Request: fold
Amino acid sequence: MKSKIIGTGSYLPEKVMTNYDLEKLVDTSHDWIVTRTGIEERRIVAEDQCTSDMATIAAQRAMDKAGVKAEEIDLIVLGTITGDYPWPATACIVQANIGAKNAYAYDVSAACSGFLYALASADDFLMAGRGKKALVIGAETLSRAVDWTDRNTCVLFGDGAGAIVLEAQEGDTGVLSCHLHSDGNYLELLYQPGFGAKHPPSAAGIEAKLPYLKMQGNEVFKVAVRSLTEVSKEALKANGFTSADVDQFIPHQANLRILEATTKRLKLTAAQSFINVNKYGNTSGATIPIAIDEASQQGLLKEGDLILSAAFGGGFTWGSTLIRW
Ligand code: ACO
Reply:
């Protein structure tokens, strides 16, 4: 038995924020952002939208593509660090929205690795027989977690959602492996200090901008390239493949320079690598399912293709998966 992807879907908010729009908010320039990150524009949710709204649309689209009804879904796993509420899980809100009354639903908090952690978790449950069909979602409203006066971070992120339907099937196609890692020693290089139990809500905390994402970009960059490369090699080695066997590499879309450095170290060609960070920026846990859906829509993922995916994010967390499409 393997967990096979039988449908994909995504949702990007209509509002486009270009680098030129950002020039009006902070001391930056289109050229600086493109040169350092490859990002040209990103999407921003409407005022009345949040994470569950985007996740619901992406999930519905994936189910429609798979020809699966909501009642058939056994579990919903949602990777996010920008849920609608601290609790309960945003996955439960999606469950109610789509009417998946037979599903159990929970969120996974692994920052930019959230989707791969969610995928690994759903794959384990399906392979253990705790359900036959799973919705795996990555959805983020990062525009509400960044400080729009901090040029070091606000230029990097965007909003969006992607989803897949996984089904436990007999055969050789589907998820071949998932490898996950974490190292909590790096917490303060990339995190959101407030408001949780450590720094509960306070006027002083708002003054100190604790509810906004904090990042030491250049330190993150180095560890990200190293970790993405190692965990991708780990996946290939565990399955007896080399880079030459990969049909599409669909990495977490953080920054074009991170992607280029990683693909170079892995000896992957541009034709093997899927990139859309220029259009959407870093949507954290949503980048990989959005990219999978776009690659699928563009006809880049064919039956039998070998798909490698890898992610890195706050925690630090990182991971990879190999999928026989
Ligand atoms: N516009 C103009 N100048 C800027 C901007 C901006 N938006 N942001 C920073 N600068 C300035 C800095 O203030 C600094 O100025 P100084 O030299 O006068 O002090 C200068 O540019 C260089 O700053 P660095 O941080 O050293 O620039 P760097 O080349 O490292 O690029 C960046 C910064 C793009 C954040 C890079 O470090 C990076 O991409 N890091 C990875 C971080 C990332 O992608 N995180 C996402 C979450 S984790 C993940 O998804 C992998």
